[in-house]
Automatic annotation (TrEMBL):
Biased amino acid composition, Polar residues: 18-29
Keyword Transcription found: yes
Source superkingdom: Eukaryota
Name of the protein this chain belongs to: Uncharacterized protein
Localisation: Nucleus
Domain PHD-type intervals: 100-203, 256-308
Keyword Metal-binding: yes
InterPro entries referenced in this protein's UniProt entry, alphabetically: EPHD (IPR034732), Znf_FYVE_PHD (IPR011011), Znf_PHD (IPR001965), Znf_PHD-finger (IPR019787), Znf_RING/FYVE/PHD (IPR013083)
A cellular component annotation (GO) from this entry: MLL3/4 complex
Stretches for region Disordered: 1-49, 78-99
UniProtKB keywords: Metal-binding, Nucleus, Repeat, Transcription, Transcription regulation, Zinc, Zinc-finger
GO molecular function: histone H3K4 methyltransferase activity; transcription coactivator activity; zinc ion binding
Length: 362
């Protein structure tokens, strides 16, 4: 029986930070080492090989530098002149999260000696500058980042319920804190000019900011909960005005049409840009592995957003050459099994017996 391809005429995979970019490890003696980055299924095993090494990740959101959530670059802060005396601990630093929203932050209070040592710490720029208590000097240096990291180890994010949250709702009396990616994913309002966050309960106060809360398309505040925040320019757009969704994965690290860049070459040649139908992130056709010769006519999903509804396997776990079916909801293995098993008796077909195919569910 012939197998019908759906949305997968080209086999492709994004050469992302997880599978093509080498990660730098900083050992206890200060020397940098480079190892191949593990993919999602590898669970960054390199970080647990030895307690003297740790993958360079943000001390607040626990994501690596090339994250898809718009935190900008990792910056080193410190060394700090005043630092609390921290007891040595054998507990390893939690493994850095991938770009799944479920892995942002820390499930347990992280080892402070690993997050904040004598040399300082690594924090994404946006994670730092939005944090409660962090101040920017006239020469654009950030102060009190170390205090934010320490306080974050005791603060639970109101969205993901994990530690490392340092961005507080601006409404008076509100005690909600968020990670930077979670603030967008939760649907909170963010003002880049004033570095103000308003949680969903207090989002109506965004109207007091005037044009800051207006949609760049319709020039009105409209439905505030429908606004998407661009991590590039800081403008807001109603999802309805752009005729796109407003799911948490789309909101986190969202870029408007003017700011959207390829998540692989960031930024690069502005041509042949594919936009994922699920997360709205952009990729060049020639940055995929293998590269695609042309733009597909059907909706397309990046590897991070492909999940088989039959076996649950995720796209990043499979090789880039793997084919997908039914709008990227059925992996190659499950499709092969489905096409060789009778839907009535669930038995494999005898090679000499031809299976009848339904034109609707094939």
């Amino acid at each position: 029986m012939d197998e019908q391809k759906t949305n997968c005429e080209e086999n492709d995979s994004e050469p992302t930070d997880d599978n093509t970019t080498a990660k730098q490890l900083v050992s206890s003696d200060g020397e940098s080492k480079v190892i191949p980055a593990a993919d999602e299924s590898g669970a960054n095993a390199a970080s647990s090989n030895t307690s003297s090494e740790s993958v360079r990740a943000c001390a607040l959101c626990n994501c690596v530098e090339r994250s898809l959530h718009g935190q900008r670059e990792l910056r080193h802060f410190g060394p700090f002149s005043e630092r609390p005396t921290l007891k040595p601990s054998a507990s390893p630093l939690p493994q850095p999260g991938n770009d799944d929203l479920s892995s942002i932050g820390f499930s347990d209070s992280p080892c402070l000696t690993a997050l904040l040592d004598d040399s300082g710490c690594w924090v994404h720029y946006w994670c730092a500058v939005w944090s409660e208590g962090v101040k920017q000097t006239e020469d654009e240096e950030l102060e009190n980042v170390d205090k934010a990291v320490i306080s974050g180890t005791q603060r639970i994010c109101a969205y993901c319920k994990r530690l490392g949250a340092t961005i507080q709702c601006h409404a008076e009396g509100c005690s909600r804190f968020y990670h930077f990616p979670c603030s967008a994913a939760s649907g909170s309002f963010q003002s880049m000019k004033q570095l103000v966050l308003l949680c969903l309960e207090h989002i109506d106060k965004a109207e007091e900011l005037g044009e800051e809360s207006w949609c760049a398309v319709c020039d009105s505040a409209g439905e505030l909960t429908d606004l998407l925040f661009c991590t590039g320019c800081g403008l807001h757009y109603h999802a309805a005005c752009l005729e796109i969704g407003a799911t948490p994965i789309q909101r986190a690290g969202w870029q408007c049409p003017e700011c959207k860049v390829c998540q692989t070459c960031q930024p690069g040649e502005d041509s042949k840009m594919l936009v994922c139908d699920a997360c709205d992130k952009g990729y060049h056709t020639f940055c995929l592995q293998p590269a695609m010769d042309s733009l597909p006519t059907d909706p397309w999903k990046c590897r991070r957003c492909r999940v088989c509804m039959v076996c649950g396997v995720r796209g990043l776990v499979l090789p880039g050459s793997a084919q997908w079916f039914d709008n990227y909801t059925v992996c190659e293995g499950c499709q092969h099994h489905r096409s060789s098993v009778c839907c009535v008796c669930s038995k494999a077909a005898n090679p000499s017996v031809a299976l009848q195919c339904c034109s609707m569910c094939h």
